[in-house]
Amino acid sequence: MKSIPCMEAVVRVLESEGVDTVFGIPGAAILPLYAALQHSTIRHITVRHEEGGTHSADGWARVTGNVGVCIGTSGPAGTNMITGLYTALADSIPIICITGQAAKSKLHQESFQAVDIVEIAKPVTKWAVQLKEPAQAAWVFREAFRIARSGRPGPVLIDLPIDVQRGLCNYDPALDAPLPVEVPQPRAEPVRAAIEMLLAAQRPLILAGGGVIVGEAADELRGLAEHLGIPVQVTLMGKGAFPEDHDLFAGMAGLQTQTRWGNAAFLESDCVLAIGARFGDRHTGDLETYRRGRKFIHVDIEPTQLGKVFEPDLGIVGHARPTLAALAYHAKERTRPRTPGEWPKRIAELRETLPRRDDFDDVPIKPPRVYRELNEFYPPDTTFVTAIGLYQIWSGQFQRTYLPRRYLVCGQAGPLGWEIPAAIGVKCAHPERTVVAVCGDYSFQFLMEEVAVAAQYEIPFVIVMINNEYLGLIRQAEIPYDMNFAVDLHYGSNGIDHVKVMDAFGCPAVRVEEPGKIREALAWATEEAERVRKPVLVEVMVEREANAAMGASLDAIKEFEPAPELAPAAD
Q1: Which run of H or of E encompasses 98?
Q2: Residues facing 435 on adjacent strands
Q3: What is the pLDDT of residues 370-400, one digit of tens each?
Q4: What residues does the Thiamine pyrophosphate enzyme TPP-binding domain cover (predicted)?
């Protein structure tokens, strides 16, 4: 077997694992890897901040389903990646962050930029490891990809001391391949029990979480729901798992990212089949209210997720796709396709009677009108990227999604600045797609330097900024404290001029202050982005003190009592 530089073996592994793009910043302690990378088929995107690189790798991973890769040098490069690692861990996104490191003999001597990044990263990764020997290089990376993909997916960090990077190893790519990833199959007994519980319920719901999308199980979900005639709700991370224009779509329940009719429907349900959902507190709110009057079946690929938030009536360990397929198989054995009964009709009634208005013509613009325009202008296969704050809440409440991996949101960690680098990753993975990053003014300013990356590499997408010149969500949270402290972003006569900021990057931009001009601006930006091959900004000035509708718990909808006894679906 031929002896080659161990970093060349690493690059061959990356190629064979399906990595075609990596995001990073070269530095002295990682140059042996870069020396090998320059002769590969992999495209390297030089980012402006390592956190931005992790978010780009995250966006690439979310939209492809493969493992994203970010590279940095020693010291602060690794510490800058921690937010991105935490974000990926929280949302079950497989990425690998690679860091350079001082020579092993110098690690105890406070060498320049030598930091124990492995220990720092352990709480926010599935595996953090330092390569000790050149001979381990290919195998450590193989294991990293396996771990990132296995079970509940997540991030891995690999630290590479400079002296180890310079070593040789015996490696033949023709004799190597990705390690197998176990796909846990459910046991038949709990699957049958789940079907019996669903058939016995009068008002069952299926709750689709992010695990349905990660598990590529949307078709199986739809098949089960249609066969049994059971309405489907989604969590924020599950948006796109079920088309929102389907007759069985039952909205979204929760405290912030929710629909009023979805909350009402959930409160009337008596049995919930939750698949790939972790019962996050922004979804459940008060657990007593959330659980009261209904049974729960919880399906998850990670056994320790079962019972973590509350004990379900039935737990099933399994990958979302084979589990949904097994549920459908046993459902078909048990009953013929069922005609939807009174319960789906009741949900349709709630949908009609409990909408939120989005047709405002007010000036300043009311935020719901922005999402109405986004819904009506962009086709269903558009990929939207959004992050945290009031605009995430409005997005969850108003934005419609129809396909998996078309609505990307950093749900649990919620780092400001996520949208721009994540959109870069999405567009690198799918250059043929229309990509729209919806952000707030403050979030844009966190990592706006990444606009330069998209401009340099001719990565076109549309940025829609919801600008209220406030830390809007914090300002709203301060209201019960009778304060309005440290949240104003406005200064001088205009505050920061985002149109001029974009111009400084060589990117077009327009500011919109009237609702009737939003759609025209979206049409211009979408066409202009592809023409100039750069990001284009549409800055929408909304009313400064716009608040998002939120409830203290699901029982905020008190006027709707549980429905009376309903006729079951017909076999």
Answers
A1: strand 95-101
A2: 383
A3: 999 999 999 999 999 999 888 999 999 999 9
A4: 388-540
Q: Are 63 and 383 in contact (CB under 8 A)?
A: yes
CB atoms near residue 345 (< 10 Å): 12
Length of the chain: 571
CATH of 367-541, one of 3.50.50.60, 3.90.1010.20, 2.40.10.10, 3.40.50.970: 3.40.50.970
User: Which pLDDT tens digit goes with each residue over 346-359?
Assistant: 999 999 999 999 99
- In this predicted structure, what is the pLDDT of residue 549? 81
pTM attached to this predicted model: 0.94
CA 360 from centre of chain: 29
The distance from CA 274 to its chain's CA centroid, rounded to whole angstroms, is: 18
Q: Where in the chain is the domain with CATH 3.40.50.1220?
A: 188-355
Identify whether 303 is preceded by a cis peptide bond (ω within 30 of 0).
no
Cα distance between residue 145 and residue 180, in whole Å:
10
The candidate with the shortest Cα–Cα distance to 202, out of 571, 570, 565, is: 565
User: What CATH fold (topology level) applies to the domain 188-355?
Assistant: Rossmann fold (3.40.50)
**Token pair recorded at residue 204:** 């069952």
